[in-house]
User: Fold this.
Amino acid sequence: MEAAQTNYIGSIGLKPSMGEVIEMMASAPATETTKTKFECRDVEVFYSDKRALHGINMDVPDSGVTALIGPSGCGKSTFLRVFNRMNDTIPNARVAGQILMDGQDIYSKDIDPVLLRARVGMVFQKPNPFPKSIYDNVAYGPRIHGLALRKNDLDNIVEKSLVRAGLWNEVKDRLKEPGTGLSGGQQQRLVIARAIAVSPEVILMDEPASALDPIATAKLEELIDELKEKYCILIVTHSMAQAARVSQKTAFFHLGDLVEYDDTQTIFTNPKDQRTQDYITGRTG
Amino acid sequence: MSANAKTSIHQTDQALGRLAKRKAKENRFRYAGIAAVVIAMVMLGWLVVSLVGTGYTAFFQHYLTITVTLSESDLDPHGARDADQLRKANYRKIIQQALYSRFPDVTDRRGKRSLFHTVSASGATNQVRQMVYQDPDLVGRKITITVPTSDDVDQLLKGHIDRDAPEDLRKVSDQQIEWVDQMVASGDLTLEFNWRFFTSADSRDPELAGIAGAVVGSIMALGVAFMLSVPVGVGAAVYLEEFAPHNRLTDFIEININNLAAVPSIVFGLLGLAVFLNFFGLPRSAPLVGGMVLGLMTLPTIIIATRSALRAVSPSIIDGALSLGASHTQAVFHHKVPLAASGILTGSIIGMAQALGETAPLLMIGMVAFVTEIPTSVMEPASALPVQIFLWSDSAERAWAERTSAAIIVLLLVLITMNAIAIFLRSRLERRW
Amino acid sequence: MNEHIVSSFDDVMSELSSELIRMGALVREQLIGALKALKRRDENLAKRIRKNDKQVDAINDDIEERVMSILALRQPLAVDLRETIAALKIARELERIGDLARNTAKRSRVIIEQEPLEGMEEIFKMGYVAVKIVEDVMQAFENHDVEKAIEVWNADEEIDEYCNTVFTQLLSGMMIDNSNINACSQMTFVAKNLERVGDHATNIAESINYVLTGDKIEERRPKGDKTSSTIVKI
Assistant:
């Protein structure tokens, strides 16, 4: 970020080129990504006989936010659910190809989806806190995984998770109150705290802000921005502005194909594929 | 659309006409709905009013206070205070003598007999026998007791027997009316709350008959039914809904469960007769068997209610649990079942209420028997509330009519209580979650 | 290019580019007018040109406002974003060209007051090329013509060469007859103005190229202007 700014200031004395002007207006510059978290090789998903994803090849970086965009039914949510094997819960869904997480195939026999999902958390479109207290919501994951042996440890995990989700100050005095009594945005952050509490490496977000108002959305985006330092985040969103704001990498899906996958800045200023161009500029394709 | 409001097609006279028509249509529908509700309320009100109107008098009973002389010569000629002797002694005579001394001018046999018929013969004699048996020291003393009047006298005083009807058309003679009026005038004959109705079992004599035996029988049968059908039903439903593979077999089972819910209840009675009584040799008329039959009958209701309650739980909650790494079983038992609990409970209680009102299957397994004892275990013969009502409704005496209605009122109150408990528990459970 | 699903977006974008085309045409008129006034020693025309520059500025303001509203209301992305930002930049460049035309008209007053200079054909040839370049670049813009834009981009070198020649001529002129210094020194500014017009047109060409291809022109821009290091010896 800093380097990019100096660069920009350095060149402003000369003539700022078109690209540089746009660079200034577009989202934060891409962070350097060194490691790959997921390697997807020819990933296909079938619902019964219908092929929902056609051979996706994509590398997801270890840190930062990767956005998946595309029109409804393009397969982006299906693809997101590949990473924590949530498609397993859908009858007749079948995944082919390889998804390597840190080099290990998550669909191999020696990976238990239960443990995988502890490593790959998920946040859904509709805030879905359990109809329990705020405390119990966050404590549920650590409890089932046996992460805290003593009440004290559990309290610490709950507090830390709520702090990290930016919700602690709002709820610390009413941890015993039901999580469903919070506002939509708070509920979504509670769900994120719940996911963080099991110490995942990856957080998947399926249109997390689609039910939130702009302020709650902004808070959520701020949270995502903070979380990306520590977690690999994949986010499906219908809002291109949101993808542009929060992500460093953007993948455009269309009719089950990965059409274009590039730095977010490139996707939103200079996409290579006509279909991407048409989609993000709101043109009939 | 026109920018000028004046030219809008929605402001023309035709449009207003159409709107009026539409509103009239909606109003007609609303009135039809109100009419339907009113009709239903009137019918329900009618039922309640007629039940209460005929039934409430059964909660009160006329009692006669008389002084009886427990002469030793009548009761215990040998003076041994032998329990057997005390039980066998002629108490009837004692009551008769008490009455004759109350009305000394009655001398002829017919008059005496008809005088004796103003009190409940077995009720009075049993009462005295019980007292003496428990306290043999009473022998030889004079005591004042309150005994129920005969059902005819009771009905007469409640106005159910017409005094103005010709004597040969009513069950109470002119003479009896005269005695009764005298006793009322002297304050010996009073109207009191009929505790006996709630504390005793069935009897041949309406003035002595109560619903306690039937209520206990019903409670026992329901307890058995509950313990059988709720765990089995809920377990089956959870398994079928959440864990069973989806194949032809489970589809077949599902269809059959739905069909079972529609099977006439008497068929379950036949099943109980064939399996529990004839095959397993369980006792007839026992609440255990009745409960098992009612439990079988309720099973499909509970399974269906439980499955729909489980299905009503938002899948997003389960997704949330799964995404945290909960196993499917954990997700189901930590989240789905607790969330469905209120629905399951409601279904169960409604099923139980259904079972409570059920008569037909109980007829088949002999719970229709005439039982004068309050059962103390599920293996003893017992009756059940609806069966008791059925039995009483069939009896001839005028006094049974009010008792039938009173028993129905009790049954309805029990049902309302059960439903109220269901509502209360549901709201409690929902508040906790 | 496909049409936007929201057709009013298309309308707004096409209004923006017609506004730019109108501005280009006006700026070209101004430039021609300034050169004409100089050549015909027509002070009235020069005055009119100076006054007309306000119109150019007005269009520039209008375009800035339109761009602002597109950014705020339509949140353009990709090609739309490039087009919107380019419009802002092109308007800015055109406005500068307009300023240069006005400046030329302003300087013509002093030049007209002085004795006419001899041998000034080169500077008018240079003016012709500058006008042509502005015309061409706006045509490239109107027709979405990348090749033409790159042609303009390369043609700037020609102006630079003219500029060098004219500059040398003017320096020599001043040395020969110092009564010409007033007019000649103004004339060097005119030449410089025309050279700057070329530069601005080049910038416009770059913007057009970026809008249409999404890429920057990678080669180094030809730099033919050597006036900064020109010394004339007698």
User: Anything to note?
Assistant: DSSP finds 18 helices and three strands in chain B. Chains B and C do not touch (no CB pair under 8 Å).
